[in-house]
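Bench notes, afternoon.
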Amino acid sequence: MATDPDAVIDHEGPVTPYRQLAEILKARIARGDWAEGRPIASETRLVQEYGIARTTVRRALDVLVDEQVVWKVQGRGTYVGQPPEG
């Protein structure tokens, strides 16, 4: 089940599930579920929490990377904010 009881992916709605998840994750970041520079939940955890496919999670995270909300480190995770300089 999802951590936020109001956060439900609507598979029949007009917005794609990966876009819905991206918005849910942005809201969770905004409310402080994950702090700046800290990792968010793993892809596996998000798949379990929201009952969606791993490809959907990856697409949602790619949207957040494109929007510069998070950054990824291969094999390590996805982190809130921008990568440290250097």
